[in-house]
Amino acid sequence: MTLLEAHGLTYAYPGGVPALSGLDLRVARGRRLAILGPNGAGKTTLLLHLNGTLRPLSGRVLLDGAVAGYSRAELSGWRRRVGLVLQDADDQLFAASVAEDVSFGPLNLGLSDEEARQRVVEALAALRIADLADRPTHMLSFGQKKRAAIAGAVAMRPEILLLDEPTAGLDQHGAELLLAVLLQLQAKGTTLVFTTHDVDLAWAFADDVALFREGRVIAQGAASELLVDDARMNEAGLKTPFLARIGLKLRACGVLSAADPLPRDEERALEFLPLSHR
């Protein structure tokens, strides 16, 4: 079921710099969608349209089939349902402590202090940073700031969480921890949409992929199918993910049949190495 849609979005920055060019996109409820494309393609601009921060020159955004509006009341309702986490957490963290920052959104919803406090507790626990509640935001590490920013969005209990390059700047352990947290949020009903230029991340984590280039989506579909479509990937200026290439080679060698799924993680790929069976 489609939860969020963009139809014909066109946008240009001051000076006539084009950012979106008649863009169409579908976000299915309960799925993980990767918006995949090179840096500078307009992916962040798209996210800012999907939560109403930017208004298109033409086109429209639909939530549950209804056209989203831009009045103050409509935007407030829109942003309750669609949360946004920017790539640079410093652009979102502004309060003195982590708990104060996470409580900002719930308090602005008009919740009581007790209700807001409960949401803060739940969000910090979900992001595994409960021990940082009283920590000044300027004393957080890069990865801690990322999780604190996400906790602030989670405390609003959005149906859809938009994340701009969520693993950018994180080491491998930090990225794995963050992705595990996002999987838990999805299991509780949150639809995830994230931008990335990392084809390997999209292959391992996304259910669906939208290939993005020069301000428009040139193809959208299941990650397991679209990311091994050489023609589409070449059109987007991207390479087939490494594990997908290994899987395709295993098929060519007869180790995998055409009906067998390609490996989506390293552990699955290692099962096919001779050394793994010794």
In short:
The protein has 278 residues and is an alpha/beta fold.
Structure description:
By secondary structure, the protein is an alpha/beta fold. The protein has two domains: 2-240, Rossmann fold (3-Layer(aba) Sandwich); 241-278, no CATH class. Helices cover 38% and strands 23% of the residues. It is built from eleven helices and ten strands. A six-stranded mixed β-sheet has the order 6-7-8-3-9-10, with helices on both faces. A four-stranded antiparallel β-sheet has the order 2-1-4-5, with helices on one face. α4 crosses α5. The longest helix is centred in the middle third of the chain and has 16 residues, at 172-187. The termini are far apart. The mean pLDDT is 91.
Integer average pLDDT: 91
> Main sheet, how many strands, which sense, barrel?
6 strands, mixed
The assigned CATH architecture of the largest domain is 3-Layer(aba) Sandwich
Helix count equals: 11
User: What is the ordering of alpha helices and beta strands?
Assistant: EEEHEEHEHHHEHEHEEHHHH
Are there runs of 5+ residues with pLDDT below 50, and where?
Answer: none
CATH class of the largest domain: Alpha Beta
Shape: globular
The N- and C-terminal alpha carbons lie at a distance of: 46 Å
Structural class comes to: alpha/beta
Strand content: 15-25%
Indicate the CATH topology of the largest domain: Rossmann fold
Rg from Cα: 20 Å
What's the count of strands? Answer: 10
